[in-house]
Design goal:
By secondary structure, the chain is mainly α. The chain has four helices and two strands; from the N terminus they run αααββα. It has a domain at about 5-60. α2 (about 25-35) packs antiparallel against α3.
Length: about 100
Amino acid sequence: DAENFLQLFHSRNVSPGANHSYYVNPAYDAAFDAAMNAQTTEERCKYWRTCQRILREDCPWIFAHYSRAYSLTHARVANYIPSNFPYGQETYLREKKEATKK
């Protein structure tokens, strides 16, 4: 869900919270709060798009670099999906059943 990343820009999270850019925009906060209170996925996504539009216009962060990671997996490994958020992926890894049969 977009909340994981977009909450970093809410004014209530200003440092010492996770909003280390000290970004404050009441319109952003209102859209974020509306998304958090939305009753349907469609409504929630509408507010997330509003949050993203506001961030693109305000540009509170300048992304000067990004990490790139490479990983190798054996053919027997199932359910491996590369991700920029790799924490906890091991939970879903399995050995492919056809690889274990001889």
